[in-house]
Write a structure and sequence with these properties.
The chain is of the alpha/beta class. The chain has helices at 13-24, 52-62, 77-82, 84-104, 142-162, 188-202, 221-234, 253-264, 288-296, 306-319; strands at residues 4-8, 38-41, 66-69, 109-113, 166-171, 173-175, 206-209, 215-216, 218-220, 241-243, 251-252, 270-273. The radius of gyration is 19 Å and the shape is globular. Bound molecules: NADPH dihydro-nicotinamide-adenine-dinucleotide phosphate. This is NAD(P)-binding protein.
């Protein structure tokens, strides 16, 4: 039987990136479509995955052999802090329905998506896969973080009790086309791109929250998509893998803002609002496991240079402003 790959959350930032890579890489190549494969990119309109019956109906309709499970209640810091129960409960329901329906319908493999916020808040750097459960996550988003941690627990339990091939990926901060560019509730790069775009349009200063000093690792969604496709085809272990650029390739928020200014062509004043909190200064995550495994199975992984990825994201945002999530 040919493979049917169901991507939940298929129209979000990462889902659209996987579709882009599958549609543009040469057929039969490492990251391209294989002959006979069917890819399904599901939306919440088609099935609200918090609901068991709708989840079962979605699986009944497409009969997936493989699932890349991206669907989640996702939000910026403000939403995570304000709606901890919603982030905990919605994500537990979504993950439980997707994993259990996958088990009941004999799906060959499920890859779920965690986040580096699952890691303990006070853990010695760098973050590595074996440290997930060694202490409580940061209190600002404990609802989301605990729901995501439970996926790793569930993956191990499904494997031990039923022999399921369920695993997970742990991306650092993702950016790219199709992101959520909302001004109040987005991640740092899409939020700053939108702010800088408006500052240019309105002739106002471009204000960045905080000192600009914190360092973060950013992974381009199109690079991340290749990692998921690789994991789908070449990785069969329950232990999760961090998907990121290297731990010493983190970039300051100030440098990100400068790159955005350049990409947008903004010539006005750039301000740093130091009354706003900075968050953790640095939380480096190691991509050693990922790189060694990809290299072992073929060519080493080549990351898109940050400036080039950022330029493409800004270009996409400007060209799609009327339809982008703002
Ligand atoms: P998006 O918000 O862009 O996409 C998430 C998708 O989940 C949405 O498209 C939405 O579908 C779908 N979804 C939400 N609730 C439901 C529901 N009840 N039923 C069905 N579908 C639902 O997020 P990303 O693409 O950024 O995130 C993908 C994964 O990556 C998530 O699991 C997230 O936790 C994780 N992640 C993201 C990071 C980031 O920086 N963005 C960092 C680390 C991890 P629809 O649009 O159809 O409503």
């Amino acid at each position: 039987m040919p493979n049917v790959i169901l991507v939940t959350g298929g129209h979000g930032l990462v889902g659209k990136a996987i579709k882009h890579v599958i549609d543009t890489e040469p057929v039969g190549s490492r990251y391209g479509r294989k002959e006979g494969e069917t890819w399904v990119f599901a939306t919440s309109k088609e099935a609200d995955l918090r609901d068991e019956a709708q989840t079962k109906a979605l699986f009944e309709k497409y009969k997936p052999t493989h699932v890349i499970h991206l669907a989640a209640l996702v939000g910026g810091l403000f939403m995570n802090m304000k709606y901890k129960l919603s982030f905990l409960r919605d994500n537990i329901l979504i993950n439980s329905n997707v994993l259990h329906t996958s088990y009941e319908t004999h799906v060959d493999k499920v890859i779920s998506c965690l986040s580096t916020c699952v890691f303990p808040a006070n853990i010695d750097p760098p973050l590595v896969e074996s440290k997930i459960h060694l202490g409580p996550p940061h209190e600002s988003n404990f609802g989301y973080a605990h729901a995501k941690r439970l996926v790793d627990i569930a993956n191990h339990a499904y494997k031990e009790e039923h022999g399921c091939n369920f695993t997970a990926a742990i991306p650092t901060n993702i950016f790219g086309p199709y992101d959520n560019f909302d001004l109040d509730d987005s991640h740092v790069i899409p939020g700053l791109i939108h702010k800088c775009y408006l500052a240019k349009k309105n002739g106002t200063p471009f204000t960045v929250a905080g000192t600009g000093n914190p360092l973060r690792q950013f992974v381009y969604s199109y690079d991340l998509a290749k990692m998921f496709i690789w994991q789908l085809r070449e990785y069969d272990d329950v232990e999760p893998i961090i998907f990121s650029v290297g731990e010493n390739e983190d970039i300051s928020i100030r440098s990100v803002a400068e790159a955005i200014v350049k990409a947008i062509g903004f010539e006005g004043e750039v301000k740093f609002d130091t009354t706003k909190a900075d968050g953790q200064y640095r939380k480096p995550a190691s991509n050693e496991k990922l790189l060694s495994l990809i290299k072992a199975g073929g060519d080493p992984f080549v990351f898109t240079p940050f400036d080039s990825a950022l330029n493409d994201t800004v270009k996409w945002f400007v060209e799609n402003y009327d339809n982008a999530r703002t």
